[in-house]
Prior knowledge:
The complex is a heterodimer. Chain A contains 14 helices and no strands. By secondary structure, chain A is an all-alpha fold. Helix content of chain B is 76%, strand content 0%. In chain B, helix 5 packs parallel to helix 11 and helix 12 (261-270) packs antiparallel against helix 13 (275-305).
Amino acid sequence: MIFLKRAVARKLGRFGLFLLLTIISLAFFLPILWMISSSLTPNQRVFQYPPQWIPDTSTLDNYVDVFTTVRTVRIGRALLNSAFVAIVTVMITLIISSLAAYPLARMDFPGKNSLFILVLAGLMIPGEVTFVSLFLIFNKLGWVNSYQALILPSLAAPFGVFLLRQFFLSIPKSLEDAAKIDGCGPFKTLFTIILPLAKPALATLTIFLFLHSWNNFLWPLIVVTEPKKMTVPVVLAFYAATFQSTLEWGTLMAAAFLSSFLPVALFLILQKQFVRGITLSGLKG
Amino acid sequence: MRASKTKVLVHKMAIRRLKERVGIPYLFLAPFLVFYFIFLIFPIIQGFYVSLTNWDMMSPEKPFVGLSNFKFLLYRDSIFWPSVKATLEYILLNVPIKIVLGLILALALNQRLRSTMIHRTAIFIPFVINAAAIGLLWNWILDPQVGLLNYYLAKIGLLPQKLLVDPKWTMLAVVGVTVWWSIAFNTIVFLAGLQDIPETYYEAAKIDGASSWKCFWHITLPCLMPATMFVTIMQVIGSFQAFGNIYLLTGGGPVNATRVLMIHLYETGFSYFRMGPAAAIAVILFVIVMVFTIIQLRLFKIRVEY
């Protein structure tokens, strides 16, 4: 009897937890849903009370508007810019991080420890404190409003080196020794033996770097003023300044949704890699 | 003759070995280090220098002015101290709330219901969205005239909120939105920490008749110490950097209530192009963050060992 009571209490407890988590999940998801439904509502009707979660005059006009409007800044170009900048940043970072992580994990050389500490220190420096002088540097080079300015500073981030070093350490050394006996140089060993084994870490790093680049806001806001070079979050800030006073919330939410769509889709597809990235970077090692 | 030849050979081999031992690792490291020094280390150093000059973008002359940019900020700039206050308020609210709620969420998600994956996904979605979109979305929801929240508040008989208008409440709104946006990070770190605690600890405690509250206090919490340390340090650094979510939600207002140092830096440097004072703010931020981080590292080291 007591046993039965306990089982019931346990079931109830779990149901209560389920209920609580469902409410919390809704609190996290409903604002996003509101973004989507506002983006599908014509600007004139977006204020109507009661709010319509499924707009009865649903329309894609707001999306057409941000893509084709005669206004100077169009979001299509910004989406391409963001994608281009993110892809180039990811590719270069993957290469230079793999190269740098390998000796830090595997070779023995003078200065190794100090270099690793330098990399660790870089993880704790907020990059924002460099923006004033970075801007002055790029200004001097005449690279304000350029892709270089959007890409190059991201390459200094030591996160990739750190993550890959931790992962390389977990790969058994015997595999490399076999390659060494076969006469493989360090370069070949890295590219034919280590990196294929490090695919999970590389996948994790890729999604992280991509999201980081795509969502990067303050630096692009500083260094890009020309509509043609703006990335998506910068366009959002520009729209916010122009459309907020005219209360075109439908248009604004359409732009916000376009800026979020790719990251959310990527996250939904690669959720496992993403979660592993957070834990791998933080705790292990 | 022979001896000297051997000597040369030995010498040559030594050089080759040295090249291999030192040259190859540095060759591998070189591309990264080049970017690292040019775009992180050098700008930090140059930033210190700029903060000591009167840096006019238009004029070729950048006269050295000593500490006068700092003096300007501390004594004459009417926004500096409000923005220090706003930054500290933001951190003191944001960091503890996100750690406690993040831990509670992680404990709830660790119970492994059949629906856990769905909950985790929902909590995580805001985290991958950019700061500008988050700020804009909540600006719309919290709008005092036409926002969604006020409609529902009125519906359940409550007064309409004026979170974004009333300076007393704006910081709370900013932190609330930030918690909603980025709590997933803490939750995931704590969740990983929880899953690393060996089941045997709990079994042993159960045999000794420990209550589940005692288990939490004496096993779960101490085992989560490394995760807590990591999360705290990351959150403090991250909170000093916060910009986009606040800027697009409140623009720093009303009456500077949410004008954190990053917003002040941005406007000083890139709206008014006063590079000297802007660099000085960056230097101050850099020093504060480093001091905070070092204190935390020290503090936690003692606790974790214990």
